[in-house]
Amino acid sequence: MDSFVxxxxxRNELIDITQEVKRIVSGSGVRNGxxxxxxxxxxxxxxxxxxADPSVVHDLLTGLSDLAPANxxxxxxxxxxxxxxxxxxxxxxxxxxxxxxxxxxxxxxxxIYFCEFDGPRTRSVHVQVIKG
Length: 132
Description:
Elements: E1 2-7, E2 13-16, H1 18-28, E3 33-38, E4 44-50, H2 54-67, H3 82-91, E5 94-100, E6 103-104, E7 110-116, E8 122-131
């Protein structure tokens, strides 16, 4: 397993980590198999979405904030980050991708995003490459 660090600058932020995952896959020497990207945090997530138009990231963050607004009076979690836990649960802690001929199988406009919902923080991303 390989890992890398992501340093976030905002409370809610999506960071494209596609190139770092590609670097790990390339370094593994695996030509065909699977790669799992896992985020070991309860207020962060990983997702695959469009990485060509930056307005998509803005819209994703806006939509998630509409679904789970910050600091609702009915939240009970004492740390004040219940919205971050909800957003992370909606997106999930991992993504698994196919490796074919040494390359990640992603659509033309797809990228892998680390999703921060309780930043700024220093976070870890774990990547496991499995030969198929």
